[in-house]
Amino acid sequence: MTGEDKGCCILLFEHNGFEVFWDGGASIRVRDREFTVAVDPGPDSPIFEAGIVLITGEYPHYNYEALKKVVGRGTCVVVPESLNDKEIPCHDVEYVDRGEALDIFGVEIETLGEPEGGLSYRFDMQGTSFYASGNSGYREEVIQLENMIDIAFLQASSKVTEEDVIRTAVRIKPEVVVPYLYGSNFGQGLNQDNLKADLEDRNIHCQLL
């Protein structure tokens, strides 16, 4: 694993041929060769063309100017139904509610959570499964993802407790947990080192940003 700096973004690690990036704040993306799935692109995201963009909720997860930087002619943007009044700079937009399953460009996508409080997404690319919690803490429904997730991006800010992160990780049982959403634009209520130690005590690798 590596923390190679890529300018506005950080290449966190590579897994099964995928490159996993953090672009600041709530923004993460997964790249397989030339195809990218981006979650909540933000002001620090670099310019690239995403194949799929997943938006989890309201500001700061929805950012019109950031979307313009990553949307190309072949991009599909997936947005919670509650944001149907927002302008999306893309011709191909899917509005979704909780409990939906989609197949977009061969990427299987499942929605969890509540549109008004933000959605979470599971997305599967070529047999590797990712989970992005967005603005969500622990939810009982994550039990349905047990042993289905390889890499989990879990909110770790003052809005959730360390116990929430650990409960979610233990329920899902991913290979890797990436705590995110902390930083200057978010709460900093969790001790990252303690969280990493607690997760790794449970045999779950924790990749800090």
Please provide a written account of the structure:
- The protein is mostly beta strands.
- It has one domain: 4-Layer Sandwich (Metallo-beta-lactamase, Chain A), CATH 3.60.15.10.
- The chain has 3 helices and 15 strands.
- The chain is globular and about 45 Å long.
- The two termini are 12 Å apart.
Coarse structural class: mainly beta
Major pleated sheet: 8 strands, mixed
Assembly of the depicted chains: single chain
Distance between the termini: 12 Å
Overall radius of gyration: 16 Å
Percent of residues in beta strands?
A: 35-45%
Layout of SSEs?
Blueprint: E1 5-6, E2 9-15, E3 18-22, E4 28-32, E5 35-39, E6 52-54, H1 64-70, E7 76-80, E8 92-96, E9 101-104, E10 107-114, E11 118-125, E12 128-132, E13 151-155, H2 162-172, E14 176-180, H3 192-201, E15 205-206
Key features of this structure:
209 residues; mainly beta; Metallo-beta-lactamase, Chain A; globular
Give a short synopsis of this structure:
With 209 residues, this protein is mainly beta.
